[in-house]
Amino acid sequence: MKPLQPAQKIVIASHNPGKVREIGDLLRPLGLEAVSAAELNLPEPVEDGDTFEANAIIKARAAAEGSGLPALADDSGLCIDALDGAPGIHSARWGGPDKDFDMAMRRVHEELQQAGATTPQQRKAHFVCVLALAWPDGETETFRGEVHGHITWPPRGEKGFGYDPVFVPEGFDITFAEMEPEKKHAMSHRAHAFDKLLAALRTAQRQG
Ligand code: IMP
Fold it and tell me: I need a labelling partner for 79 at 20 to 30 A (CA). Which of 9, 22, 86, 208 fits?
């Protein structure tokens, strides 16, 4: 991987200000300056890939080509074994236009019941986060993080977002939405993907 030198600007290919801030904080110790795709008026590409990697790459490449700067994008979701990996890359879409995750979680539960999956063992699931880093010359690297657990019902907890109230991580008996955010953030799919990205960036900076 090519090194990113300190003071290098890097585009965060997201129009979500919370995500841009969070990623900017993580990159600052490496001396990298994060700018958002929204600040640069970059359009949002159509995410029509059929894997997390493909969609993260579509977003990162579009931002790198549109800005002439290295760009970082993420794609994430929940995969349930008994549902053949659904909702997977469609995790956000299951919430509908109103981002109604009570509805999405109910759908998960109903589909699991239809599949006859009632025990934690039969309700295994994992969150996935893929980060893609793209350079304007087309070079692209991806980093995948996962956290494994099972789906519970009814939903429990007020912290977190999305599917957190029905996800119980392995080794715990509370959901992600009942867990202190610092604890979730330290063990999440996103944390694992970022650890891999930061390790690769540090190695490249040392070697470059
Ligand atoms: P993205 O923003 O296109 O990556 O969509 C990710 C979707 O997956 C979100 O809308 C959430 O529904 C779900 N998701 C991803 N990460 C988490 C998490 O940490 N907790 C709960 N839901 C998540």
Answer: 22
Ligand 1, atom 7: nearest CA belongs to which residue?
Answer: 92
Distance CA 22, CA 206 (A): 24
Q: Which residues are catalytic?
A: 75
Task: Mark 64-73 as b/e (b = at least 16 C-beta within 10 Å).
Answer: bbbbebbbbb
Site to probe by mutation for ligand 1, drawn from 15, 44, 47, 91 as the one with most ligand atoms within 8 Å of Cβ, is 91
Q: Where are the domains of the chain?
A: 9-207
Per-residue pLDDT of the chain (208 residues; tens, 9 = 90+): 888 888 899 999 998 888 898 899 889 988 999 999 999 999 999 999 999 999 999 999 999 999 999 999 999 999 999 999 999 999 999 999 999 999 999 999 999 999 999 999 999 999 999 999 999 999 999 999 999 999 999 999 999 899 999 999 999 999 999 999 999 999 999 999 999 999 999 999 888 7
CATH class label, 9-207: alpha beta
Q: Find the residues whose C-beta lies inside 6 A of ligand 1.
A: 75-78, 91-92, 95, 127, 160-164, 176, 188
Mutate to test the pocket of ligand 1, among 79, 89, 161 (most ligand atoms within 8 A of CB): 161
